[in-house]
Amino acid sequence: MSDLIQAAAPKPTHRVRGVDHAAFPTFDPGATVRFYRDVLKFPVVHSICAAGWGPERHPDFIHFFFDIGNGDRMAFFYYFGWQPAGDPTAPGDAWARLPHDTPDFFRNSRHIALHVADEEDLLEYRRRLDESDWPVEMQVMHETIESIYTHDPNGYMLEITRQLRPVTPQEDLDAELTIQALCDVTAGQSPSMDKLLTRKAELIVERAAAWEAGRPGTRETLRESV
Description:
The protein is of the alpha+beta class. It folds into 2 domains: about 20-165, 2,3-Dihydroxybiphenyl 1,2-Dioxygenase, domain 1; about 170-225, no CATH class. The protein is built from 7 helices and 8 strands; from the N terminus they run αβαβββαβαβββααα. It has helices spanning about 1-10, 30-40, 105, 120-130, 170-185, 195-210, 220-225; strands at about 20-25, 45-50, 60-70, 70-80, 110-115, 140, 145-150, 155-165. Strands 2-3-4-1-5-8-7-6 form an 8-stranded mixed β-sheet. Strand 6 (about 140) and strand 7 (about 145-150) form a beta hairpin. The model has no long low-confidence stretch (mean pLDDT about 85).
C-alpha cells in the first residue's frame, strides 16, 4: 500500500537533481588537459567534434568534459581560429575586458547546465520558462542529452538537460583519443578541425597496431600510450 501511495504522490515543485556540467571556453586546450586530467586526475569522459555547426560564421569547435565526481562534470569549448583580444589568461576578470563585438557563441560558452530526471521534467521547466519573462531560446537534441536554453536576468546562459542514454566505455575511449589529438594539433601552427580529425585517425591506427601486437586494450594502457 505504501508503494501505491508513493507512486501516486505528485512530483515536487523543485525537480533539478544538481549540476550536469559547468562550461567555459579554453584558449589553451593542451594546458587545460594537463591541469585537469594530469594534475587533478579528472578523467576525460566525453567529447563532441562540432564541424559546421550553428549559425553563419560559427567556427568549428571541440566540446570536452571532465568527470569531477558525484556525476558532475566540468566542460570546455575550444573554438578553431578564434581568439579574443588581449590575454584571456591574465589575472583579473578577462570577461570584463572582452570587446563589445565579441560573438554571442563565445559569451554563451560560459554557462551552467542543471540536470533533470526525464522528458517530463524537462518539458515542465520549458513550460515554466515559456510562461515567464525568460522563455526558452533553444531546445537541442545532442548526442547523449536533450537540453533547453535561456538567459537569466543577469544575461547568463542557463541550460537544463536530461540524459538520453548512458555514455558508453567506447565513447570514453573515443573522447580520450579526440582530446589527445586536440592537444597535438593545437601545439602546432594553424590548428583546425581537419587537422584534428587527421591526427585522431593516426592515433586510432597506432592503437590498433598496438592491440594487434598483443598489448592489453584497456583504458589505462591507452591513456599511458598516448
